[in-house]
Amino acid sequence: MHEFALLLAQSAAVLFITAWLTIGVYENIFKPNLNCAFTSQVLDMTRMREEYPEAYVDVAHRRISNSNVQRFLFRLIVLWEVIAVAVLWAATVMMVIALFTGSDVQFAKGLAIMGALFFTSTWAGFLIAGNWFCYWFCHYEGQNTHYQMNLWGLATIILLAI
User: Fold this and answer.
1) How many whole angstroms separate alpha carbon 48 and alpha carbon 71?
2) For residues 67-97, b (16+ Cβ closer than 10 Å) or e, as one string?
3) pTM, to two decimals
4) Percentage with pLDDT > 90 across the chain
5) Structural domain boundaries in the chain
6) pLDDT exceeds 90 at position 102
7) Which of 138, 117, 123, 120 minimizes the C-alpha distance to 41?
8) From CA 137, how far away is CA 19, in angstroms rounded?
């Protein structure tokens, strides 16, 4: 019973991050302006320039103001998220199959760990790039969300490693 319950919890954890990121990918593909505008603001350091002009002077050389480059980077992020979601859905299916048949449990967990790593690396990437563009000055909500998603992904990896 314990092993079944653990595999059920692991499967659910993978399904949860898969569902969350799937909604994000859906929005980024069909409603790109929801996130593209904020991505452009971070890359251009718009809010920092307006709200903290003294600090902005020290890091203004980091800014990416070219709208074509901003759109390219946004599309690259969406592509990464699509790949992550594809791996996560494959892992979710494999975990459910393993749950009910007992076959390929280690393969399913390995795939799920890879999917959770893709999920986690999305948010870690935002935290690292956001730090470069000083988004902690003016995009607190985004940074907080990225921290939480990063921790959620790490917790899922840890649960899968048990």
Assistant:
1) 20
2) eeebeebbeebbeebeebbebbbbbbbbbbb
3) 0.93
4) 98
5) 2-161
6) no
7) 138
8) 30
